[in-house]
Amino acid sequence: MFNLWRTSFIVVVALFFLVACKQEAMEDHVEVVAKEEKVESVEVSFEETIIDMYLPEENSEPRKTLITHVMLHFSSNVLKKPEDPFHVEDIYELFRDYGLSAHYVIDRTGQIYRFVSEERIAYHAGEGKIEGILKYENNLNPYSIGIELLAIGTKEEMLPMLSAEHYDTISSKHVGYTDEQYEALQDLLINISTRQHKLKLDRNHIIGHQEYAPERKTDPGALFDWERLMSGIEN
């Protein structure tokens, strides 16, 4: 009888030990999986999503003034490639060759490229004015960041650059702006405002090229949805 009791006791102890080991192993596994999931869920910083394609220094100059405005533009290589007008390398070459520049370019997928650092003045605004503020007349570049969206405007807006016949060859998918561009632009503007504390995210300070130089420019044009943009950023 004693031997039977001792044998039963040993079996119970062994079973308890096995259960405890199994539970510990399961806890270790859960902990490892949790750590792996945590590593996988680490978000990439916004800065890391931007692709740097810096233009030569002669396409910009050092900045000595505080940034108060952002100017939006549209760009494409529709004259040379109406069937495929949005290669960022083509836009880079156009800027480089014509001595122009912008700080950022946003392609159709929402990918952001940096052509000029914010610490430098880009050549994007040209001649123009903001009513009531003389210091900006023909002089907005030193106070602004230029952002190019790869897009094509309406036929009327594009006529200064290409013929009506040329415009009619363009696919409708290339006209206007994409959802991804609006989302990327909102994120970029919010990100810029964290560094440029004089920049207010409102329609007085986020402007289109056509507002600054209406006699010369038509971008970002009638197809750009300002209400959609500002609904997510205005402060």
From TrEMBL:
The enzyme's E.C. designation: 3.5.1.28
Catalytic activity: Hydrolyzes the link between N-acetylmuramoyl residues and L-amino acid residues in certain cell-wall glycopeptides
Assigned keywords, A-Z: Cell wall biogenesis/degradation, Hydrolase
Coiled coil: none
Segments forming domain N-acetylmuramoyl-L-alanine amidase: 55-221
InterPro entries: Amidase/PGRP_sf, Amidase_domain, NAMLAA_amidase_2
Protein known as: N-acetylmuramoyl-L-alanine amidase
Source taxonomy: Bacteria, Bacillati, Bacillota, Bacilli, Bacillales
